[in-house]
Design a protein that fits this description.
about 30% strand, alpha+beta, about 90 residues, single chain
Length: about 90
Amino acid sequence: MKKGTHPKEYRMVVFKDLSTNKEFITRSCAPSKETTTFEGEEYPLIKLEISADSHPFFTGKMKFVDTAGRIDKFNKKFANTRFAKKDKG
């Protein structure tokens, strides 16, 4: 294994699932500019669009989440390609 590939500065970070508002704390080296209070202590905050608490594989429920308009962006981009179905009318 290569030396020096793993970060050395892990710290406690709160992750928040935005679709369920559930928070959990774990060690991470991911950067964050936001902070939050968790169990009376101040921690860096990292927001997630989906986690095990909201993922269909773990919940058994299908939930459609398109927070950034990615589907519309894809459809708009795809409409200009030769693979898109054209109206013959």
